[in-house]
Write a structure and sequence with these properties.
four-stranded antiparallel beta sheet, globular, Neuraminidase
Amino acid sequence: MDPILQLPPNLPPHDAAPLRAVAHAVVAEWPIGTFVENLAVLDGGDIAVSVLSEARIDRVALNGERTVLRQFDLPPTGLAVVDGALFAAVGEPGAPPMVLWRMDLTAGSDAPWMTVEGAVFLNGLTPFDAGRLLASDSHQGRLYLIDLKTRTSRVWLEDERLTRAPGLDFLPGANGVKRFGDEVYVSATGRALFLRAAVTPDGSAGPLTTIADRLRVDDFAFDSAGSAYLTTHIGHSLDRLSPGGVRVSLAGPAEGMAGSTACAFGRTPRDRASLYVTTTGGIVTPPDGVLQPAKLVRLDVGVDGAPLPEQDAA
């Protein structure tokens, strides 16, 4: 089959890393053509997965059993767990409002929690500190700080490097976002940049600096030693970037990484050194022209994941 999208010649380059494949297993699959966007590991170990193309969130047990957690009218993107509740960014990309939903999985209730004023495409979503989230706006090049208690939000960081690259509107600007220690990391997918900003003592953002270029990152996660694990989406790989800047691929298309979109570490004693990766099967640019089923894949990386802020291992 022909690629769905012919990549333009002005696409900033992405340097492939040498492959050092690790053990992997497919946990769950979705039909060919399904766009699986993001994931969050729930208290107890099950995995919530946002299925963008079907406007719903699925729940996947570690044995692969899959159930529908919530059907929406508009697509969910970013997911985050805070105090046992699942938060989801929901809205049509580029068409506000962007609404944050809260799902209490213990009580079995869910409802819109707040509108993030000014946002037009919330994508990455992650805990920042007690009761607050960071969300990336992939169209406007912004990170929003969201206070869940007061239900208010404000722009925490804005930079031209986080906007969409000129002529490449099909690729997000600011995409994945995570806090690790006293720094916030963010991927600028269309510009093939991986960046970070310090969290200053008063909680504001320090200057945004480039960690790596020629590196197309969608989402990412950190292990306890400070290495970043990067989904490369149209690069069809899961890469590990060490604190010293050495990068290797731990999985490629043969290990199920066609269209890798997001990743997160397990949170139970048996899977803290396992990285879960969502994929689209290569919807945007199928590897070798062959579209695969969308997947949730477990990679055994041999290092425990770093807990997200205010999220202890279950």
